[in-house]
Amino acid sequence: LQINLLISEIFRNFNNIDKSIHYLEKSLNILNNINAYNKDDFNLKDNNFYFSKIYLNLGNQFLKKGLVDSTKKYYDKVLNLNSLSVEVLSFKAKVSSNLSGIYMQDSLFDLAEKYALNAISIHRNFKDSISESAALGNLASIYLKENNFVKAKSTYKEALDLIKNKKGVRALKIREQLYFNLAFNLYELKDY
């Protein structure tokens, strides 16, 4: 199982999406077989972790191929897993953020907002302010797309406040994107 996941990751890093999907599907088959035949030998927590990891990665690979229906199918499988482990909830937050972006692109703003709020809630519960800030940025972008510039502005500011004292490359990248989007929002508000 883990070897196939590693091989899939190698192919993903080299942008060989089809081979990555192939090894993810092999991993899924192995996991299903382990689950079916060796229930006593396989910890349910590990089971949910591996299912969520594989489903997330399959969804991501199908998204890269532009196959949104397949992406949604695997993302929904992550969201439907019955687990409260930190790892699985982290995968659920990532899936929620990705679905938020997908629905925002499709101008389905209610669904986009629902998934963004779900991601924010998970990150907030785990006190992951950097990820929460990124999810708030997604929510603000939804408001921006809806031409709700006042709400977008306050949400971008809330996101920036969360990471104002955070260091590191990821925090810097998120802060940069938030400021860029906030600047555009202020331009639209004519708030110079």
**Residue windows where pLDDT falls under 50 for at least 5 positions:** none
Q: Indicate the overall shape.
A: elongated
| Proportion of helical residues | over 70%
So how many helices?
Answer: 9
Features:
192 residues; mainly alpha; 81% helix; elongated
Topology:
Blueprint: H1 2-13, H2 17-37, H3 44-64, H4 68-80, H5 86-105, H6 109-125, H7 129-145, H8 149-162, H9 169-189
Helix pairs in contact: 1-2, 2-3, 3-4, 3-5, 4-5, 5-6, 5-7, 6-7, 7-8, 7-9, 8-9
Structural features, described:
- The protein has 192 residues and is mainly α.
- Helix content is 81%, strand content 0%.
- It has nine helices and no strands.
- Helix 3 (44-64) runs antiparallel to helix 4.
- The longest helix has 21 residues, at 17-37.
- It is elongated and about 60 Å long.
- The model has no long low-confidence stretch (mean pLDDT 92).
Explain briefly what this protein structure is:
With 192 residues, the protein is an all-alpha fold. It has helices spanning 2-13, 17-37, 44-64, 68-80, 86-105, 109-125, 129-145, 149-162, 169-189.
